[in-house]
Design goal:
The chain is globular, with a radius of gyration of 24 Å. Helix 8 crosses helix 9 and helix 18 runs parallel beside helix 20. The chain is an all-alpha fold and 418 residues long. The chain contains 21 helices and no strands.
Length: 418
């Protein structure tokens, strides 16, 4: 007779570990399903990023190959819009001012090629497209994965990674189950969820920004500090404006004694040299051309532009963007409120307060450098501020509820983000 094997009961630590794995796994699965459920936007910016991922060579041949891929992978109604033609049933007036620009870049290889420097300054994304396409084609055969499909896939994976990073941040103060529910609910907000549909480096950049702050707050030791700075340096290749974040992180870390002044200056110079190298290789046109092209008039041939932005023009430009930047200024207001509450309750040495000041400086500098109304560029700062607000509320609640409620695991004890 076979004797049954007795399985020893799980200890509390093993049960907790198993529970954490189940929660994390369920969150990743839910985020993946949400990303897959969001249909691709097939936005115009997809075109230059995909073109940059193609083998370099004759501009005419690359332009022809790009539109061949578009005809294969993009729905006809979306193709019409990419080509500067309003598809039947499309009454979106917001596209009207770009139609001539889209028609010229679709029909003229030189006009399209002159747009590429605006996008080549973010080399991580087209390199990721080329890498994923080559990897899949090498494993499964040529032409298995289109670069257009690869651009969408990378954005969706980056969005899932962004959600996991945000969840990790929330776990620093909230219980894991509570953090998972909160993260999932916030990631389904339209302004956040649609990030997974764009063929742009925005989801990738948001992930790196959030991860840098998670590492910075996780532990002040050298290992975590180096990790945060390494991620911030990598973020410069995702979006060049992330150089401002790197500089602010260095100021914060030096203020706290986490890096010496010499080290901070050296890393800052490396970051600046990294930015200059990317700008040089990409053929970057400069800030004044970018501002003119983005906010004054779309230029089919930006190499011929010699814009002179007067102070009156800039003032008028920034004033015109105030109305479309309400979400930005609301987030800035919430950030200031969180800073004041953390300072009142924890003092100036509070790590979260200092991180909020860094994020506040980054948001303001970003808007001053590029007052774009596209809030998807600042999704990571917005969610960091929202998480900080949840931390402040958690502290206030934990001070007023009974110890029994804390013992049930709804909130962790205070002091874990300090």
């Amino acid at each position: 007779m076979t004797q049954a094997v007795r399985v020893p009961p799980l200890t509390n630590s093993k049960k907790n570990l198993q529970r954490r794995r189940w929660v994390a796994g369920a969150l990743v699965l839910a985020l993946t399903l949400l990303a897959l459920a969001m249909p691709p936007a097939y936005n115009w910016d997809m075109l230059p990023y995909v073109a940059l991922s193609l083998p370099s060579g004759d501009d005419q041949a690359r332009h022809k190959e790009l539109w061949r891929l578009v005809e294969l992978d993009v729905p006809e109604s979306k193709q019409a819009l990419l080509r500067g033609q309003i598809a039947e049933g499309n009454s979106d007036a917001r596209q009207a001012d770009t139609l001539a620009y889209r028609r010229e870049t679709a029909s003229n290889a030189q006009a399209f090629t002159e747009q590429l420097p605006f996008y080549a300054v973010k080399p991580m994304y087209p390199m990721a497209i080329a890498g994923l396409t080559g990897l899949v084609d090498g494993a499964l055969g040529a032409n298995t994965l289109s670069p257009i499909s690869a651009s969408i896939t990378i954005s969706k994976f980056a969005w899932v990674a962004f959600g996991v990073s945000f969840f990790t941040l929330l776990c620093m103060r909230l219980g894991q189950a509570t953090a998972a529910v909160a993260a999932l609910a916030i990631m389904t907000l339209p302004a956040v969820h649609t990030l997974s549909s764009y063929s742009t480096p925005d989801a990738l950049s948001a992930t790196l920004i959030m991860l840098a702050f998670v590492l910075a707050l996780r532990d002040p030791s050298r290992t975590w500090t180096v990790g945060a700075l390494g991620v911030a340096l990598l973020g410069v290749a995702a979006r060049p404006d992330n150089l401002m974040l790197l500089g602010l992180l260095l100021v914060w870390f030096h203020y706290n004694g986490r890096v010496r002044l010499v080290t901070a200056v050296l890393v800052g110079l490396i970051g600046f040299a990294w930015y200059v190298l990317i700008a040089k290789i990409s053929g970057n046109y400069g800030w004044s051309v970018l501002m003119h092209h983005s906010f004054i008039d779309y230029a089919e041939y930006p190499s011929k532009l010699t814009p002179t932005l007067s102070s009156d023009t800039l003032v008028a430009l920034y004033l015109s963007k105030l109305g479309s930047s309400m979400l930005f200024f609301q987030c800035v207001g919430v950030c200031v409120l969180c800073v004041l509450l953390r300072w009142y309750r924890r003092g100036a040495r509070d790590q979260l307060l200092q991180a909020l000041l860094v994020m506040l400086g980054f948001m303001l500098a970003h808007w001053l450098v590029f007052p774009d109304q596209k809030d998807r560029l600042l999704v990571a700062p917005y969610l960091f501020v929202l998480a900080s607000l949840l931390f402040v509320i958690a502290d206030l609640w934990a001070d007023t509820v009974s110890p029994a409620l804390q013992a049930r695991g709804l909130f962790k004890r205070r002091g874990e983000v300090s």
